[in-house]
Backbone:
């Protein structure tokens, strides 16, 4: 055996078509079928454990979990079909029992159910018998069987309709027969109202022609579901098309108890909601409540109200058995109820595509109300997001704690929802989420891995491309397209993806959240594309041609041709120098990538290859097909030779992969198994085979570190295996480091950053808002607390006062009650004494009566005893008499029996003697007859031998004649059919010929008309030729005039450039002058303001001088009166002298001193204090004025700097404006040149203009346009 083994690690996918394909083991673990395994999956920890299917199994059909969640039953098709029961308490799911139907004619088991105590198992088989098998499974004992379809009508035929497309029209053909072949299932002789494999409702299925897509229908069989009563392990319910029956197991047999009248109604599922009630769902969206075999009520899954019952009519006898209602129930279209699940509050059911309705019990009896809906959300990664919402629900499952609801769909997807977090009871719509990730729903056609990342890419016929991470077991990226994806290849860097579609081959970027196309190649129907190991090349297959493209330039650098059939697979060598291909023509070619030449070949036309691989040293090629071949190059010739061959053993190898170490080869087969074959290849059948998938393995890959193996299958599943040796160690111990780089577009990154900023600001705003709201709440709550505390304090005080009042009232009432109690006690004691006296007298009387009765009783007992003794004595005497009579009779019979025995012995002796004599006579006769007949037998044997030979010859001749006769009859039938078809074709062709003749006649007339038109056009063409000659001559003249005009245009362009340069210089000077004028205007304005201020100051000074002169003349008149003079001078001083006018004060004092020394001395002595105060104030004011001047200087400097800055900015803006003007002028000049070139090109097309137009163009002066250009500026 091989030293390397493969262990199942993780699987992506769900097996479709399995009944009850989703079960909860506990609140975190589920069981579902995938590939050819049952998978135990932990929702929280994301681990998987596998229960492999049995060998040579043809696929799983149904699952069933016991009520104690300990045992799992798996139904598998095969020869014979089996039911395997596994013990789930064991870590690996140990196999407990394997059940078979024995000699019963059973082809498959469609559905199963465990009894509530997990002791019994009931299985429903398929057609044509539809047998129920009742097992005591622990003892592998079939307790009883019964046909669930027994008693169905068999007098109806199967109606078939199908479309035929002929020409541009579609024709519908109908047939009805009980002996013809069914167009739906292929069986012959259906005598039922519907085919057993037909869609629900008994409606006629229309067979679609090629190219048409038929809408999916929900299938319903005559017996579609079976279940046990959860409170009674002897009661069974079976439902199907027109069928809902209850059986009871007793006395070793299943006995039919009740059957609801549901003829013509297709029941898809049912569930027990109590010990006597069953809810069933139909294909028209109806829910039926059956109690004790009688139909109680029905309603729509969408809660459309049911019409009220008529007067005097009970619910159990609702008129649903009429023919009209049965037809209405059959033809009414609506959402199908495909699954029903009971739970503690009611039940849940599917209500059409992507919808689950929740019904709960109400207070009324037998009544349920709809409390909510749970929907499957749209898929944002799909090109049709609403397609996910159209999935039909296959199975519903609820966790034991009723916290999580999970479902599986008929598209192979798993969804779940937490019932605790979902607000279902409020009537709001909730949405499911993927249980783990979305899976492929159709066969996987492509598989690829990369080197730098733990990624694997798959593509499928469901038009999707998915990128998985086999390290974390999650789906990284997923996208659906308009076309089917046929092949896929990951770039070694893990950043690019190559996908082959039916129309083109596309190169895509793997972004952080999207798969985006950036290059397309015209390679149609590319079913295989592979990147080289270096990533600089890739090979793409188109039929029998191989294209090699460069990844850097996207050029097709090589096209390899040589295969006569389709190329199935290609493989690169480790150095990317060679490419190996294999095809359906039985050829394996090795190509040189640099030269494009074929270096070696191996052709076996009897073999069809499906896969190819190259060893690490590129010396050995492995090809897979009907067998596995090891091909090695011959150094002396181009032809390669097959070294070893491993046969397929009744299967075909569909894919293969070689480990990087070269120790082992992994192959996938058409039966879905994986084979591990050691290298060098063994001469005998020496391999390990694993049950992997239920469909053919399409792709097999080994990771670059030899740690994992990946297999993809036609069942849509992707399985990850761990490669270890028998000791559990990997093939390579070298640790691989993966990169974490991803591709992000600039716009996406900017959008994300912008969104982050917006979210940050939003979070800050929300925080501030919440803090503000919390403060407001705190304030309001504090106010409320104060109010409540005050009210409570007031209420407590009021209650205390009320309590005291009630205490006082209670004391008063207790005193009153004590007094009343004393009175009542005395009264009752008196009444008691009186009653005792009266009762004692009554008792004495009763005692006397009882004594008399006792005496009567004793007398009666004595009388009865006497009578009883007499009766006993008479009975004894009668018994003795009977005993004596019977003993006498017995003695007589004994004597007669002795005589009979003696006679019998005598007769036996006589019989023995007669027998002995008869035997002796018979022996003698037998001996004589034996001798006579032996002679006759010898003669007859010789005659028989001769006749046998003649009979063999005649049989051979008869067989050959019968075969010839059958062949002739078949040929005659085929020829008749062909003749009928050809007659129809001939008739249609004759009609087509008549139509075509009419068309030909019309076209002949049209041709004649067109010939006339052609003649006229020929004449016009000749005239145009003449015109062309004249226009060519004119064109030559114009070309001669073009050269001098081009020189003139060039000169004009130079002149324009010089003028524009001068204009630019003038603009700059003008700008500078404008700035200088603005400065001068500002200075002039400031100077004018200063002049006005000085003028005002001068005017004020003149007015002050005039007033001073007047006052001085007035003082001069007082020279003779010193006191008045002093007062007048002081008044003048107060009026005209300011603190800043200290000098004037001194001058004035000196003048006064000169005029009158005596008075001045007196004035100086008096005003010494006034002068000191004046000087102090003067110093203060001078300091204040100095500080204000300093502040003014600083403000002026700041204002000047601001003005300088503004001037600089204005200068830079003006420079930018000048540059823009220059660019505008350049653009206008380019437009002008373009107009000139257009005009010149128009002149070179003489056929499109008349001679007058040419003259007009030739006479147009370019100076006009050139002179107009500067005016635009």
Residues:
């Amino acid at each position: 055996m091989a030293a390397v083994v493969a262990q199942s690690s993780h699987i992506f996918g769900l097996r479709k078509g399995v009944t009850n394909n989703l079960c909860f083991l506990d609140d975190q673990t589920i069981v579902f079928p995938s590939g050819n395994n049952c998978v135990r999956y932990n929702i929280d920890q994301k681990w998987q454990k596998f229960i492999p299917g049995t060998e040579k199994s043809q696929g799983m059909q149904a699952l069933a979990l016991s009520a104690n969640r300990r045992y799992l039953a798996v139904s598998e098709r095969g020869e014979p079909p089996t039911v395997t029961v596994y013990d789930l308490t064991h870590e690996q799911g140990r196999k407990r029992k394997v059940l078979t139907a024995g000699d019963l004619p059973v082809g498959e088991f469609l559905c199963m159910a465990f009894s509530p105590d997990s002791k019994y198992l009931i299985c429903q088989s398929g057609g044509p018998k539809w047998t129920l098998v009742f097992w005591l499974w622990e003892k592998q004992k079939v307790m009883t069987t019964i046909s669930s379809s027994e008693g169905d009508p068999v007098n109806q035929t199967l109606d078939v309709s199908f479309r035929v497309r002929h020409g541009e029209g579609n024709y519908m053909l109908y047939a009805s027969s009980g002996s013809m072949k069914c167009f739906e299932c292929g069986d012959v002789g259906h005598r039922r109202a519907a085919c057993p494999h037909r869609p629900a409702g008994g409606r006629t299925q229309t067979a679609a022609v090629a190219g048409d897509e038929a809408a999916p229908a929900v299938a319903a069989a005559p017996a579609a579901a079976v279940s046990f009563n959860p409170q009674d392990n002897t009661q069974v319910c079976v439902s199907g098309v027109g069928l809902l029956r209850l059986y009871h197991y007793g006395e070793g047999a299943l006995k039919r108890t009740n059957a609801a009248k549901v003829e013509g109604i297709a029941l898809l599922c049912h569930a027990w909601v109590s010990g006597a009630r069953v809810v069933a769902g139909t294909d028209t969206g109806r829910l039926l409540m059956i109690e004790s075999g009688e139909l109680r009520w029905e309603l729509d899954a969408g809660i459309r109200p049911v019409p009220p019952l008529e007067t005097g009519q009970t619910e159990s006898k609702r008129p649903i058995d009429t023919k009209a209602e049965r037809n209405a129930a059959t033809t009414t279209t609506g959402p199908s109820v495909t699954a029903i699940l009971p739970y503690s509050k009611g039940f849940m059911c599917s209500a059409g595509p992507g919808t689950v309705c929740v019904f709960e019990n109400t207070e009324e009896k037998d009544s349920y109300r709809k409390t909510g809906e749970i929907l499957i959300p749209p898929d944002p990664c799909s090109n049709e997001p609403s397609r996910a919402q159209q999935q039909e629900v296959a199975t519903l499952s609820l966790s034991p704690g009723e916290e999580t609801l999970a479902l599986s769909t008929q598209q192979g997807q798993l969804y779940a929802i937490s019932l605790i977090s979902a607000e279902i009871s409020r009537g709001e719509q909730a949405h499911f989420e993927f249980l783990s990730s979305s899976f492929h729903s159709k066969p996987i056609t492509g598989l690829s891995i990369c080197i730098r990342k733990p990624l694997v890419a798959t593509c499928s016929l469901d038009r999707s491309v998915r990128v998985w991470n086999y390290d974390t077991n999650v789906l990284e990226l997923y996208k659906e397209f308009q076309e089917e994806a046929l092949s896929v290849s990951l770039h070694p860097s893990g950043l690019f993806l190559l996908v082959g579609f039916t129309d083109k081959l596309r190169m895509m970027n793997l972004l952080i959240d999207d798969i985006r196309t950036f290059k397309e190649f015209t390679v149609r129907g590319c079913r295989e594309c592979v990147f080289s190991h270096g990533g600089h090349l890739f090979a793409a297959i188109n039929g029998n041609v191989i294209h090699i493209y460069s990844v850097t330039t996207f050029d097709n650098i090589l096209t390899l041709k040589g295969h006569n059939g389709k190329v199935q697979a290609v493989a690169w060598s480790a150095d990317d120098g060679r490419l190996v291909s294999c095809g359906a023509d039985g050829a394996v070619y090795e190509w040189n990538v640099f030269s494009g030449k074929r270096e070696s070949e191996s052709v076996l036309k009897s073999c069809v290859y499906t896969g190819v691989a190259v060893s690490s040293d590129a010396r050995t090629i492995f090809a897979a097909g009907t067998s596995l071949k090891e091909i090695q190059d011959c150094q002396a010739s181009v032809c390669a030779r097959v070294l070893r061959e491993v046969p397929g053993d009744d299967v075909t190898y569909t894919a293969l992969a070689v480990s990087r170490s070269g120790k082992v080869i992994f192959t996938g087969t058409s039966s879905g198994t994986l084979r591990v074959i050691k290298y060098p290849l063994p001469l005998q059948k020496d391999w390990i085979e694993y049950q992997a998938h239920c469909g053919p393995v399409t792709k097999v890959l080994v990771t670059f570190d030899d740690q994992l193996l990946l297999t993809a299958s036609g069942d849509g599943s992707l399985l990850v295996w761990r490669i270890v040796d028998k000791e559990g160690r990997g093939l390579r111990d070298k640790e691989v480091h993966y990169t974490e780089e991803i591709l992000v577009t600039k716009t996406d990154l900017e959008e994300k950053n912008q969104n982050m900023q917006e979210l940050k600001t939003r979070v800050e705003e929300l925080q501030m808002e919440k803090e503000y709201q919390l403060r407001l709440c705190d304030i309001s709550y504090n106010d409320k607390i104060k109010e409540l505390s005050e009210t409570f304090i007031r209420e407590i005080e009021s209650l205390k006062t009320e309590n005291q009042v009630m205490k006082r009232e209670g004391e008063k009432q207790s005193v009153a009650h004590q007094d009343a109690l004393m009175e009542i006690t005395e009264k009752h004691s008196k009444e008691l004494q009186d009653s005792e006296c009266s009762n004692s007298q009554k008792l004495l009387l009763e005692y006397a009566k009882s004594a008399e009765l006792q005496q009567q009783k004793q007398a009666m007992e004595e009388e009865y005893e006497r009578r009883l003794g007499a009766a006993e004595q008479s009975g004894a005497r009668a018994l003795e008499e009977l005993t004596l009579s019977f003993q006498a009779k017995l003695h007589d019979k004994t004597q007669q029996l002795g005589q009979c025995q003696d006679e019998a012995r005598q007769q036996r002796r006589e019989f023995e003697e007669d027998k002995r004599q008869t035997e002796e006579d018979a022996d003698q006769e037998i001996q004589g007859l034996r001798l006579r007949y032996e002679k006759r037998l010898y003669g007859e044997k010789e005659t028989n031998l001769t006749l046998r030979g003649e009979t063999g010859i005649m049989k051979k001749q008869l067989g050959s004649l019968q075969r010839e006769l059958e062949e002739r009859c078949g040929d005659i039938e085929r020829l008749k059919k062909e003749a009928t078809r050809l007659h129809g074709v001939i008739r249609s062709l004759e009609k087509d010929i008549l139509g075509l003749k009419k068309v030909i006649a019309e076209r002949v007339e049209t041709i004649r008309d067109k010939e006339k038109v052609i003649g006229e056009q020929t004449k016009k063409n000749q005239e145009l030729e003449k015109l062309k000659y004249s226009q060519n001559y004119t064109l030559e003249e114009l070309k001669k005039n073009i050269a001098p005009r081009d020189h003139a245009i060039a000169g004009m362009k130079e002149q324009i450039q010089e003028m524009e340069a001068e204009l630019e210089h003038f603009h700059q000077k003008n700008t500078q002058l404008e700035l200088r004028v603005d400065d001068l205007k500002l200075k002039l304005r400031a100077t004018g303001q200063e002049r006005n201020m000085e003028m005002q100051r001068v005017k004020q000074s003149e007015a002050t001088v005039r007033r001073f002169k007047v006052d001085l003349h007035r003082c001069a008149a007082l020279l003779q009166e010193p006191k008045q003079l002093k007062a007048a001078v002081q008044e003048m001083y107060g009026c005209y002298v300011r603190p800043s006018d200290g000098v004037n004060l001194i001058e004035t004092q000196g003048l006064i001193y000169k005029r009158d020394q005596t008075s001045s001395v007196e004035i100086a002595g008096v005003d010494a204090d006034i002068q000191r105060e004046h000087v102090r104030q003067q110093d203060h004011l001078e300091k204040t004025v100095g500080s204000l001047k300093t502040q003014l200087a600083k403000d002026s400097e700041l204002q000047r700097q601001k003005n300088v800055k503004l001037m600089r900015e204005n200068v830079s803006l003006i420079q930018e404006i000048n540059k823009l003007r220059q660019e505008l002028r350049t653009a206008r000049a380019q437009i002008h040149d373009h107009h000139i070139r257009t005009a010149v090109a128009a002149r070179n097309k003489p056929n499109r203009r008349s001679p007058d137009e040419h003259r007009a163009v030739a006479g147009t002066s370019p100076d006009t346009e050139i002179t107009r250009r500067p005016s635009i500026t």
Remarks:
- The first helix runs from residue 323 to 331.
- The helical segments are 323-331, 746-1116, 1122-1136, 1142-1155, 1157-1166, 1168-1243, 1251-1259, 1262-1272.
- The two ends are 93 Å apart (CA to CA).
- The mean pLDDT is 81.
